[in-house]
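Field: COMPLEX_INPUT
Field: COMPONENT_COUNT = two
Field: RESIDUE_TOTAL = 450
Field: MODE = joint
Values follow.
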Amino acid sequence: MLARSSLRSMRILNGARNGTTAVAKRSISSSGPSIESPMKLNMAAAASTALAIGSVAWYYHLYGPTAHAGSPAEEGLHATKYPWVHEQWFKTFDHQALRRGFQVYREVCMACHSLTRIPYRSLVGTVLTVDEAKAMAEENEYDSEPNDEGEIEKRPGKLSDYIPAPYKNDEAARAANNGALPPDLSLIIKGRHGGCDYVFSLLTGYPDEPPAGAQVGAGLNFNPYFPGTGIAMARVLYDGLVEYEDETPATTSQMAKDVVEFLNWAAEPEMDDRKRMGMKVLAVTSVLFALSVWVKRYKWASLKSRKIVYDPPKVSNKTRN
Amino acid sequence: MGVWDVINDLVEAATPWGIAEAEAPPAEEKAEAKDEGSKSDDAEEEEAEEAEEEEEEEELEDPKEKFEEECRNSKQCAPAKHHFDECVERVTNASDDDEGEKEDCVEEFFHLAHCATQCAAPKLWAVLK
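Field: COMPLEX_OUTPUT
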């Protein structure tokens, strides 16, 4: 359809062109003596070229460049790409790192940030063993079912309980943190542009002092990666803040890397399974595709290899046999 | 983890007579073993730990900062550093006069930080666990 319509337009164009050339010829032939001088023609060509270039330039000036409303400081420094191992196609989470990261979350981040979408049961087998998870759940109290008098008693936590939040609600969290709400970290890696790189850069990117002339609001800290550069969270990770059970040296960047990997697991606990399933799908579909190609060729073999010969009748009167 | 381990894992997973263990029993054993170990030589370990801690506190140095410092002073980031230093000098001198619009070095700082982190990223990942 498209081809046909374009063909038709081509024809119309041709017709138009023929018409115009015809008209031009006629006008030239009719007004024989007043042939325009090459000087004038050159000027006309130059003027029209200039007009064309000028209009393109004007149009680009008007609509071409994208408008940046914010200054670099308002946009924030774009996080550097780090070569995360678990982001590669054939790699899983490093579960030793997840374990360390969970330790960092528990000892450092948990004071302010909730992780409300992660129940203790999901930590079993990925970060903790059953017994460790149970023991950790039992450290907290949860509301149980109403008793005979209709009162709700407290009971120790079970594996099916969710990790408790540090504050009762958002308002309490704001009130305790100078009006700034510490975001829930369950989906923070998925929820921030730059993902792992952004959170890692944010945690480790606090400079010793803000650059000269930078304005830092009251109660805020300078962090180049945070849009606006003023972040309410102060630097929390310092060398040797936690003591890893596997005796990894707990430097700032090591802790940040571990906790970011843990938070990525919290946001995408299905990643390992997803990648494995992806591999299975690719393997099986490639075999099936190869099979279907073979079957097609097999079935078409007779059609493709046949030869149709037109044997014209001989001109002679003899009948063909 | 070599290729052989992968194949071994696959075979183990596929064989119906393989034994799937819950994680709990080995973990308990481990915990017990740890307890026994810690009871037997508590004093020694404590001393050793204390010594280790002191050493660690002195030794611990963030590789990120080290590499980024190196990168900041490298040839690669020389232009960014040059601009940043110049800006800092200009701004600190200008702030004494207190006239007109105040300039800040955030943008120059961004360019320098971007260059330094980009250069340090692979080195850092080679060191971190």
